[in-house]
Design goal:
By secondary structure, the chain is mainly α. The protein contains 21 helices and seven strands. About 12% of the residues have low confidence.
């Protein structure tokens, strides 16, 4: 009614569909609209009759049997069939559950066991027992294998906008678990701004896996969006992943997700190449265990697989027709970096509407190693609040002045700089050693000594606060540097005629830069 006929759908007082509709016409009918109503009823009756026929025909075949026909549908000439995609998505959906990212009791809200900050207690509390986890993993895999089956049904062939929706109806009619039916129905979501974001664990696992596989597969084959062109809707997929992760509070690194998606992709590639199943299992286990693995294709179309635990490399003849080689490891690392940049750009777009400045996102991303989107956004929002204060604005100005001096002088801090005035006899005597020459101690000026003391206190506090994810606390620690930095620049000559003083003061400015970089790269912030 709504999509094909452009009618207004009506519901009764209880919210159920009512046997009535509203249509519009831009003519003044002499019969009060009776003929218009009769004509629209006739057209609608015919469409509903078609739908009933398709429903009855499609029900004669199970979704699992429908899914077998996906082998005949090309997903993309470089990416194989829809069946190939389904296989990859099913493996990735299962991995999301087995890693404890999507859990029986709760979606998100904790760190995967592979995360460096995860604890055993956290894992046992939130991941559920082995039986629950395996049951959820089985449901996620089942839903993923059936999620695209309705693409070959008569109903979706006639009404393409019903893909997913009809699969959910057919799954429920077959008596499949509600969680599976719901996941099939909703795995495309969210498909745009304002769309519902799934929260059911099985649905989240399948939706994430489907979107990540599409992004990685197209990027590996150099089919990424360019300019205004995005024929495969990868930007929309990335926004969907971001909504799923941030909306549910996932504590997960994008890099880990992307690498897992690649592992599924590579495993599928080796399957096409007829790599022995036992070798694939061992290779996949090495990938999942975080071992260093390697592969390369030789001129005679053999593929050599190896991993750290293997006594020798495996040499396997490739044989799949049109299988093509897997990408080199160098290419994979390049693609993973491209995907992270792609997500960073999409995050800026998504957060712009929430009033978050894109340069602050850059400032956090620039530090490297921060792709846990929940933590990143908490960090960015704390940074935005801080920069809007007088202390934040003045500290930014002081940082930029220090950074400009260091850049102009071409000064690079030593690999393990001594923190002058922080400890030892020099601290007790109030002397500041020259970090360039190792001699020529001098008594620092009062503003210089005050900045040293402030850095000694603020630096560790800021670092500890970031580690504890207390980003407001980290900003508060940096705020204590504002006054000492202002006083230093007001009364201390950095480029002193004495080489020892000049070197030590440049090193002190490098400490300022280092302390600030514990929170964000302020050089990326406008202003």
């Amino acid at each position: 009614l709504r999509v094909n006929q452009k009618y207004f759908v009506l519901r009764d007082a209880s919210g159920k569909l009512a046997p009535a509709f509203i249509c519009t016409a831009n003519i003044e009918a002499k019969d009060g609209g009776a003929a218009i109503i009769a004509g629209n009823r006739k057209v609608l009756a015919a469409r509903l009759s078609d739908a009933r026929f398709f429903w009855e025909q499609d029900r004669k075949t199970s979704l699992a049997d429908h899914a077998k026909k996906l082998e005949r549908i090309t997903f993309h000439e470089k990416l194989g069939t829809v069946h190939d995609k389904v296989e990859r998505v099913a493996k990735l959906a299962r991995w999301l559950v087995e890693e404890g990212i999507v859990t029986p009791a709760k979606v998100g809200g904790h760190l995967p066991t592979s995360h460096p900050d995860a604890t055993p207690e956290m894992g046992s509390r939130l991941r559920g027992n082995d039986e629950e986890r395996e049951a959820l993993a089985a449901l996620a895999e089942q839903a993923a294998r059936l999620a695209k089956a309705d693409l070959v049904t008569e109903m979706v062939g006639e009404f393409p906008e019903l893909q997913g929706v009809m699969g959910g109806y057919y799954a429920r009619a077959e008596g499949l678990p509600d969680a599976v039916a719901d996941a099939i129905r909703d795995h495309y979501k969210p498909v745009g701004q304002g769309d519902d974001v799934p929260t059911a664990p099985v649905t989240v696992a399948v939706s994430l896996a489907d979107k990540l596989d599409s992004i990685l597969s197209f990027f590996i084959n150099d089919l990424k969006p360019t300019g205004s062109r995005d024929p495969f809707a990868l930007r929309r997929s990335a926004l969907g992943v971001i909504e799923l992760l941030t909306g549910q509070g996932f504590r997960l690194q994008i890099a880990a997700l992307t690498e897992a998606a690649f592992a599924s992709w590579l495993d599928a590639c080796f399957a096409i190449c007829d790599v022995d199943i036992e070798i694939r299992k061992e290779f996949r286990k090495a990938l999942n265990d975080g071992e260093r693995v390697s592969w390369h294709f030789t001129d005679d179309k053999n593929v050599i697989l190896s991993n750290e635990s293997a006594d020798r490399p495996y040499l396997v003849r490739t044989g799949g027709a049109g299988s093509g080689p897997a990408p080199s490891q160098e290419r994979v690392q390049s693609v993973l970096a491209e995907v992270l940049d792609f997500f960073a750009d999409r995050l800026k777009v998504q957060q712009r509407e929430a009033g978050v400045r894109h340069d602050l996102i850059d400032a956090v991303f620039a530090l490297g190693g921060e792709d846990d989107l929940v933590r990143l956004l908490a960090r960015v929002k704390a940074l935005q609040s801080f920069i809007s204060t007088e202390d934040g604005a003045n500290l930014l100005a002081g940082y930029k002045r220090a950074a400009n001096i260091l850049k102009k002088e071409g000064f690079e801090a030593p690999s393990a700089p001594a923190k002058a005035g922080a400890q030892g006899d020099e601290a007790q005597s109030g002397l500041l050693p020259s970090q360039e020459h190792g001699a020529g101690n001098y008594a620092p000026e009062p503003a210089e000594a005050a900045l040293i003391a402030a850095l000694d206190a603020a630096g560790p506090r800021a670092t500890a606060a970031v580690t504890a994810e207390d980003f407001e606390g980290a900003m508060a620690a940096l705020a204590t540097l504002r006054a000492p930095i202002d006083a230093f620049f007001d009364s201390v000559t950095v480029n002193d005629a004495d080489p020892a003083k000049r070197a030590a003061r440049l090193a002190l400015l490098a400490r300022v830069r280092e302390a600030v970089h514990a929170v964000a790269d302020f050089s990326k912030i406008a202003g």
